[in-house]
Predict the structure of PorV/PorQ family protein.
Amino acid sequence: MDHFPKGAQSIGIGNASVTLSDPWAIFNNIGALGKAPSEAHAIAGYDHRLGLNELTTLAAGITLPTEKIGTIGIGISNYGGELFNQQQIGLGLAKQLGLASLGIKINYFQTNIEGYGRSARPVLELGGTAELIPGLFFGAHVFNITRAAISKASLDYLPTIVKAGISYRPAKNLMVNIETEKELFSPPQFKAGIAYSFEEKFWARTGITSQPNNLYFGIGFRPRRFQVDYAMSRNYLLGFTHHFSLNYNLKAP
């Protein structure tokens, strides 16, 4: 299912990204987008899982900050191959309200299965973040809060996922994240990640997850207008997955 976290920055820290306020929050936690950078950004990403084209995800989006209503985000993604694939396009809005950043997003989620046809359903998600004390952040997010089914005629539901986590940032160049994620009928997943920057332009990242047990590694480079990130994850049974993403500041001088 196309509900994986997106963006190599997130994946490099084991997907412990519910508190991150980067432009990829349009996919990972719409609530965090209210604290995103004040300039408009365009993003694009490519995930090639386990060397299989059938498990590849392409994603792109744009964030548009406004003075009155908050930050608007638009994201599209495509997952899968010829026999099974899913596409979604979503429109979200997030706004900083005091200490908290809150957001809502509506998605048009389409599933195509060879021999069974095509179906599409609306999917709603909600999220938020807050700085509890200086340097300590909390975030939470719910995907498919309305329990949308794959189709009107199906008894199979799209996953409903709840995640929450904290982020400790004692300095501008260090971040430690801990997060849990729960799908309604699956065991909870534990995630943890660390990111460290050199001269605020180069980032090194690592993370772990349980259920399944995976290791994650990532690097990032942030010149004036671009941010380029790469991450690699390893499943101890299935092998490696590679992730690439690009952020582009549309208004930087």
Summary: The domain at 8-249 is CATH 2.40.160.60 (Porin). The chain has a mean pLDDT of 90. The chain is about 5% helix and 60% strand. Residues 8-12 form the longest helix (5 residues).
